[in-house]
Design goal:
Elements: H1 4-22, H2 27-34, H3 38-53, H4 56-69, H5 73-84, H6 88-100, H7 104-114, H8 123-135, H9 139-149, H10 159-171, H11 175-186, H12 193-204, H13 208-223, H14 227-244
Helix pairs in contact: 1-2, 2-3, 3-4, 5-6, 6-7, 7-8, 8-9, 8-10, 9-10, 10-11, 11-12, 12-13, 12-14, 13-14
């Protein structure tokens, strides 16, 4: 009868065979063999289960696990795709991946390159570049783009655009306009980014009690949410909490 060690070894070997046959990243071999049996379990959750289940929830779970283990994976893949074929789609994908890693100058350059010719007025590209400019503190340039975007009432006045405007107005010291934009976006954007950014704004502008109420609301919504939402929701809740307790 096989011992626990023997079973763990067979389990790991089977997963290593899966890695080689499916063309998965070779660093999975080290994780599986060096962290038995935990490494194999992680591989099952991140790679095998999503491929078997095929549903969106399983895919998101796998993506989350892969992102935690290899945070630059999406950036590397996006860069390789863009190097091979610098299409607008690939430039957008790489810009988002760069922004996720805090590489906002690179993201702004990519958005700019994508928004040329017939794509110069594309609302997704304009908002993407404006968001990168906000992260770089270039608020006047971002506002110019948002004013162009706002000329189209259908695509230029969305909750995401309002949130960007709130951040721009705050950066420019136009607090009354920032408050209006933040508040409108907070009640309409799915998830907790809008409410989290608005709560942080409230805290930064001396409205601590309102900010605490918003944080309490976020805590309540996070507690009743599914696990995937909780992780993202806590990030925005923590953004607001840090504004309430700076330093």
């Amino acid at each position: 009868m096989l011992s626990a060690f023997g079973l763990s070894l067979l389990f790991s070997i089977a997963l290593c065979v899966h890695v080689v046959r499916t063309g998965a990243a070779m660093w999975w071999l080290a994780i599986i063999l060096m962290l038995q049996p935990l490494g194999g379990i992680v591989y099952l959750v991140a790679v095998v289960a999503p491929s078997l289940a095929g549903g969106p929830a399983a895919r998101r779970l796998g993506q989350s696990a892969r992102q935690s283990l290899d945070p630059t994976r999406e950036y590397r893949q996006a860069k390789a795709a863009n190097d091979q074929a610098p299409t607008v789609h690939n430039q957008m994908r790489l810009a988002r991946a760069a922004a996720a890693l805090g590489r906002h100058e690179e993201a702004e350059r990519l958005w700019t390159e994508a928004a040329r010719g017939v794509h110069a007025g594309d609302p997704v590209l304009l908002l993407g570049r404006a968001t990168a400019l906000i992260e770089l503190g270039r608020f006047e340039e971002a506002l110019n783009l948002m004013e162009v975007l706002g000329q189209d009432a259908e695509v230029g006045r969305t909750p995401q655009a309002a949130l960007a405007l709130g951040r721009i107005y705050e950066g420019l010291g136009r607090m009354a306009e920032a408050d209006t934009a933040y508040q409108w976006a907070a009640g309409r954007i799915p998830g907790l980014e809008g409410l989290g950014r608005y709560a942080a704004f409230l805290a930064r502008t001396g409205r601590a009690e309102e900010a605490r109420d918003a944080v309490a609301e976020m805590d309540s919504r996070i507690a009743g949410a599914n696990p995937r939402f909780r992780r993202e929701g806590r990030a925005w809740r923590d953004l607001a909490a840090r504004a309430l307790s700076p330093g």
